[in-house]
Specification:
- α3 (87-94) packs across α6 (206-213).
- The two termini are 29 Å apart.
- This protein has two domains: 1-113, Spore Coat Polysaccharide Biosynthesis Protein SpsA, Chain A; 116-227, Spore Coat Polysaccharide Biosynthesis Protein SpsA, Chain A.
- It is of the alpha/beta class.
- It has helices at residues 35-44, 59-68, 87-94, 118-128, 191-197, 206-213, 237-244, and strands at 4-8, 29-30, 33-34, 50-55, 75-80, 105-109, 112-114, 132-137, 143-147, 153-158, 164-166, 177-187, 219-223, 229-231.
- Helices cover 25% and strands 28% of the residues.
- The strands form three sheets. Strands 1, 4, 5, 6, 8, 9, 10, 11, 12 and 13 form a ten-stranded mixed sheet that branches. A two-stranded antiparallel sheet has the order 2-3. Strands 7-14 form a two-stranded antiparallel sheet.
Length: 246
């Protein structure tokens, strides 16, 4: 059972200007509700009421919103990154003391809205027993995760530049299938020790961590291409989000 999750809220939101000139992107509204509130309620719908939030850009505004709304019914813990923005992987590592020891946990991004069924992701994770499971879909994206026929992570591609990183050298890159990352991930707690064992410290992305670990540990994608996934990273994405998430 998953009882704790982390929502990444610390980013600068440079693609979401002019809103982010004066506000954190996590508080941008979709049909009258902030992205943060929507993700908190999304987690609640699957029984997850203990949530870690990292803050950096206009951190005070997020803390005030959480306090004013009493966490929208969830128990919220703040991981403070005011001093330095640590990217997703570094932000997760800094928040380690806020997680329950040896218990699996979930992460998601404040600026991603999805109706991925977390219960099905958990079932998939329990069935395959990987180190990490995350949602993937067949949709357009500037970057793709490259998976084998079993949906095990084997590499990454920048679709704009053509750059590829292949994590498992024995794999023929031509055999791999591209998927877009849904930013909802389920981790075994042991990932924290592996971060440090593989030389990750302070500032790094989850994608870099995935690619480093993929050769030695099974990391699987759970395909949910029939579900909605909206990256509300740009103001023009709000209209689509409002259509799909009333």
């Amino acid at each position: 059972m998953i009882t704790r999750a982390m929502i990444f809220c610390a980013g600068l939101g440079t693609r979401f200007k002019p809103w982010t000139d004066k506000h954190p992107k996590a508080l941008a509204l979709v049909n009258g509700k902030s992205l943060l509130q929507r993700n908190i309620e999304y987690l609640q719908s699957f029984g997850i009421f203990n949530v870690v939030i990292n803050v950096h850009h206009f951190a005070d505004q997020i803390e005030v919103a959480v306090e004013k709304n009493r966490g929208w019914g969830s128990d919220i813990l703040i991981s403070d990154e005011r001093a330095e923005l640590l990217d997703t992987g570094g932000g997760l590592l800094k928040a380690k003391p806020l997680f329950e020891e040896n218990q699996p946990f979930l992460t998601c991004n404040a600026d991603i809205l999805t109706n991925l069924h977390i219960g099905k992701l958990i079932e998939f994770h329990d069935q395959h027993q990987p180190l990490i499971s995350f949602g993937i879909t067949r949709r357009e994206s500037s970057r793709s995760l490259l998976m084998d026929a079993t949906h095990r992570l084997c590499g990454w591609r920048n679709n704009k530049t053509g750059e590829e990183k292949i994590a498992i050298s024995s794999i023929n890159p031509a055999s791999l299938q591209p998927f877009a990352y849904s930013c909802v991930a389920l981790f075994d707690y042991s990932v924290f020790n592996l971060m440090q064992g593989y030389g990750f410290a302070k500032k790094f992305s989850l994608t870099d961590l995935y690619l480093k670990l993929a050769a030695d540990y099974p990391i699987y994608g759970f395909e949910h291409s029939k579900d909605h996934v909206v990256d509300v990273g740009k103001p023009e994405s709000v209209a689509l989000a409002e259509k799909l998430f009333p």
